[in-house]
Amino acid sequence: MIRLILSTAVALLATVGSVLADDQPLTFDAKSVGGPNSGASFELWRPAGPGPFPAMLVLHGCGGVGANQRSWAARLNGWGYVAVVLDSFRPRNVKSVCNVGGIAPRLRAQDAFNAAIYLRTLPDIQADRIGTIGFSHGGSTVLETVLERAVPVDRGGKPFRVGVAYYPGCGANPPFQQPATDLLILIGKDDDWSSAVNCQKMVAGKAGMTHAPSIKVYPGAVHGFDGGGLPTWSHDHMVGGNAEAAADSFVMTQTFLEAHLKAR
Question: Model-level pTM?
Answer without folding.
Answer: 0.91
